[in-house]
Amino acid sequence: MRVFIDACCLFAAFRSPHGGSAMVLELGRLGRLSVVASVRVIQESCKNIKKKIGQEAVTRFHRVIRAGLIEIIPTPEAPAIAKWETLTHAKDCHVLAGA
User: Fold this and answer.
1) Can you list the alpha helix ranges (DSSP code H) found in the chain?
2) Partners of residue 37 on adjacent β-strands
3) Which of 13, 34, 60, 63 is least surrounded by CB atoms within 10 angstroms?
């Protein structure tokens, strides 16, 4: 099963290594899930992890990225993002478009 994750999920996974979001990454590591995120989600996650958790968590985040535990897809183009504007906040449309 492929699971698209957003920046909140990644942030939570690195803030609480034993919580549900971390379990999603662990299931990906075990091959039980295929974890997917867009370039924009990865960038937002890294920025928030660095700002709110710290450099040690950023280092762990980069290790996960380098290990290929998350399939990183291109950020959707503007027309694909715009399709979701009537369903959610503008800042979150890229997540739905990516999924």
Assistant:
1) 7-15, 20-29, 39-52, 55-66, 78-82, 93-98
2) 72
3) 63
Cβ atoms of 96 and 88 within 8 Å: the answer is yes
Q: What is the pTM of this model?
A: 0.94
- Mind listing the pLDDT tens digit for each residue in 33-64? 999 999 999 999 999 999 999 999 999 999 99
Q: At what angle do helices 55-66 and 7-15 cross, to 10 degrees?
A: 120
Distance between first and last Cα of the chain = 13
Work out the angle between the directed axes of helices 7-15 and 39-52 (0-180°, nearest 10). Answer: 40
